[in-house]
Specification:
Length: 237
């Protein structure tokens, strides 16, 4: 399968047509942004790591019963995926307080929740991806009630799987963001990526951050952290 016309260029990926209208190629870049595009930079090698990590995890999730857009890894940075129309919601699951949750609710980073949480934000850069509840999403026709139920079920299943997977690799899954899409027949599948760009991953023993927070917060050692988390994935795979 070869790349056709470029359809879209996002912050971290480019998307190309293929000769099959139901399939697209995503190509992962090293570009990094944070704070709604305010902070920009490059994380050398990130595209390769995010591509390979996301594909590994999606393959496993399929086996665990969560349908995904993943079809085939084509090269270090390129992957064939099923074409979806993205449900314009960022779906965030949290196991431990961090980031915007800590700020909004005044809970110290690192506090372990007694049960995982789910939240949605409206994918809209102009508005800064505002927090939104399921009733808002249904009222605005962003998703149906049934789709929201399916998305919730899959998101918690992803959490159960990923939490256990990373634990065995000595990594604590703090929180993560998912995006879902609809296939042409309306089936909801997991789309976008699962990577250190979209997850908070801490070393289980030292609590060292092995994710994009090193870039967001200028902690240094960004490339090393991405390499280390990939090493853990490969070791455990
Ligand atoms: N996240 C993401 N994209 C976004 C916002 C958040 O991938 O546009 C991920 C982020 O990496 C973290 C989780 O979602 O793993 C929760 O992020 P949070 O709401 O705490 O926002 P942040 O503090 O990153 O602004």
């Amino acid at each position: 399968m070869t790349r056709g016309e470029q359809l879209y260029e996002g912050k971290a990926k480019k998307v190309y047509r293929t000769d099959d209208p139901e399939l697209l190629i995503v190509s992962y870049k090293d570009d990094a942004t944070a704070f709604n595009g305010l902070k920009k930079g490059t994380i050398v090698g990130k595209g390769v790591i995010n591509n390979q990590m996301s594909n590994q995890l999606m393959k496993r999730l399929e086996k665990a019963g969560v349908p995904t857009h993943f079809v085939e890894e084509l090269s270090e940075r390129d992957t064939l995926v099923r074409r979806v129309s993205i449900v314009p919601l960022e779906v965030i699951i949290r196991n431990i307080a961090a980031g915007s949750f800590s700020k909004r609710y005044g809970v110290e980073e690192g506090v372990v929740f007694s049960a995982p949480t789910i939240e949605f934000s409206y994918k809209n850069d102009e508005l800064g991806d505002p927090l939104m509840n399921a009733y808002h999403a249904i009222a605005m026709n962003l998703a149906t009630r049934e789709e929201i139920e399916t998305i919730k079920k899959y998101a918690f299943a992803v959490n159960d799987f990923l939490k256990a997977f990373w634990l065995e690799a000595g990594v604590t899954l703090v929180d993560f963001k998912l995006e879902f899409g609809r296939l042409s027949d309306g089936t909801i599948v997991l789309a976008d990526e699962i990577s250190p760009d979209t997850c908070r991953l801490w070393d289980s023993k030292t609590h060292e951050k092995l994710d994009k927070d090193r870039f967001r917060r200028d902690l240094g050692g960004v490339e090393d952290a991405y390499q280390e988390i990939m090493r853990r994935l490969k070791e455990h795979a």
